[in-house]
Design goal:
Elements lengths: L29 E8 L2 E6 L14 E5 L5 E2 L1 E6 L7 E6 L8 E5 L14 E5 L6 E4 L11 E2 L20 E3 L2
Parallel strand pairs: 9-11
Antiparallel strand pairs: 1-2, 2-6, 3-4, 3-7, 5-6, 7-8, 9-10
Length: 171
Amino acid sequence: VNVQDDDQIDIQGDISGDGADNVQSPAPFVISAVATDVNTVVITFNKGMKEPAAETASNYDIERFSNGTPVTVNSATLNTGGDSTKVTLSISTILEDVEYQITIHGLESNDGGELSTSHKKRFKKVGPITFYSVTSGPWASASTWSKTSHSGTPNTTDHPGNTHKATIYVG
């Protein structure tokens, strides 16, 4: 993808692997936003970002995607240790497995490119997954497992065989 001249790009989903290398843009954009815990979000840009705007908490707005409930951004810290592509946000507590949207305003890259107005990115803090056996059956069959209880509705896609670090209750 080639973004021309003063055009800007706003990618809602994550770019993984070498995906960011395949987007040529004079303007900066967010590659990913990752909740490392329920009080921290790390934003990775495709280019190094300038201080002090990148470290101004009011340049970041976070809300629960489903209902707009705001999340407080307490502080923003630019990683200046040779890699100014990452900003770490300290935030009020968010819920696990709930999608949030961050809107970023007024940032500029070290090479003078401007982030698109109201640049948006979605993220969620993925919590631990618990499976309960609901029937006797194959381990790798989603219909054998529920995420709510032993009498809960069986899954349609997930099971212990395709999930890492799950807690499993058989009984």
